[in-house]
Amino acid sequence: MKVALAGIGKIALDQHVPAIAASPDWELAATVSRHGSVPDIAAYTDLDRLLTERPDISVISLCMPPVPRFAYAAAALKAGRHVMLEKPPGATLAEVYILKTMAQERGLTLFTTWHSRMALAVAAARDWLSQTTVTSAHITWREDVRKWHPGQDWVFEPGGMGVFDPGINALSILTHILPAAVHLTSANLTFPENRQTPIAAELTFSGNVTADFDWRQQGPQTWDITVDTPKGHLALRMGGNALEIDGQPSGGSDSIMGEYPALYARMFDLIASRQSDVDLAPMIHVADALTLGRRSLTESFSF
Ligand code: NAP
User: Fold this and answer.
1) Which of 25, 26, 52, 253 is most buried (most C-beta within 10 Å)?
2) CB of 257 closer than 8 Å to CB of 113
3) Ligand 1 atom 5 nearest Cα
4) Given this model, what pLDDT does residue 251 score?
């Protein structure tokens, strides 16, 4: 199946291009980007031109930041193409509901990807938790924004989500593995005085679930989720790639498929079965945190 990648920047080059190249199901047929390109691949700077000139390309995978993504997704769906969205799937929830309806009306596939759900131990954690109840859970998601997003000012602009850009990965895992839904009840958000989005957030949910997101962590990075249950203590570490039960490493998944190859395999299956996969649960928690959050200011941030 031929796919065009739009928004050729960090994640497109780090993950999408290798995942497509490694798959026998997919062919990277073109790129759409104002400046970026991929060697030996037809490069367009304008999506409308690609949609007109390349009827052979049936799938558009969108890798630009969330704010500009809606216009690209809507144009692709209007032109009868299946669409795959990087996380978070849009700048607002309403945008994504509109895209979902557009895809439904046209019989097209829309896939709101959550790459962290494809991490190696997430399926095993979900299975283990499905047999029990949760008494409490905590997320610690602390990383260095300068290391992972060097110079990407869009993360601190409206719609860039700030620390929720990585934090939503944790929420995508949480909403996938918990056996019952929770809802956010309060949040403390810390904004650099010169920026529009938070650099740190403390979240409290129903069901004794809490989260600590911080983008100022130097040295070792922490991407952990711990869950207490009557049958024991589960810890999912390394962004969902390592599972511990009661402090002991646990088998985890048999899959050796990386996160992005797994996303493209899922997209292929969704198209083949004429389905969409649009799950906004992680983004609803972010929107709720930005709705209920108490704001405090901290020192200015620059890259
Ligand atoms: P990025 O490198 O800053 O942006 C990707 C590309 O999008 C840019 O190179 C740019 O290409 C295009 N772009 C930027 N602003 C645009 C605009 N206003 N209109 C149209 N195109 C625009 O960002 P990224 O790190 O790849 O992240 C993109 C998405 O992937 C985000 O939603 C992010 O959360 C997600 N993601 C990122 C990572 C990561 O490690 N960075 C990991 C997982 C998921 P042109 O200038 O050539 O148009």
Assistant:
1) 26
2) no
3) 9
4) 67
User: Cα(157) to centroid of ligand 1, in Å?
Assistant: 13
Going by alpha carbons, the residue nearest to atom 17 of ligand 1 is 68
- Tokens, residue 234: 């589960």
Mean pLDDT for 182-190 is: 98
| Closest atom, ligand 1, to C-alpha of 35 | 47
Is the pLDDT at 256 greater than 80? The verdict is no
7 CB less than 6 Å from ligand 1? yes
How far is ligand 1, taken at its centre, from the CA of residue 69, in Å? 10
Confidence of residue 257 (pLDDT cuts 50, 70, 90): confident
Instruction: Grade residue 123 by pLDDT with cuts at 50, 70 and 90.
Output: very high
- Find out whether 277 and 112 touch, Cβ atoms under 8 Å: yes
CA–centroid distance, 106 to ligand 1, in Å, is: 27
* Domains of the chain (ranges, CATH numbers): 2-112 (3.40.50.720), 116-255+287-298 (3.30.360.10)
| Selected catalytic residue, list 2, 10, 78, 87 | 87
| pTM, rounded to two decimals | 0.97
Cα(68) to ligand 1 centroid in Å equals: 10
> What's the pLDDT score for residue 106?
98
Which residue's alpha carbon is at the smallest distance from atom 8 of ligand 1?
9
CA distance 276 to 283: 17
**Region 49-65 average pLDDT:** 98
Say yes or no to pLDDT of 252 above 90: no
Token pair of 56 as six digits:
């052979």
Note the pLDDT of residue 175. 98
Confirm if 25 and 264 have CB atoms less than 8 A apart: yes
Token pair 């962590």 is at which residue? 217
Ligand 1 mutation target, pool 10, 146, 152, 286, most atoms within 8 A of CB:
10
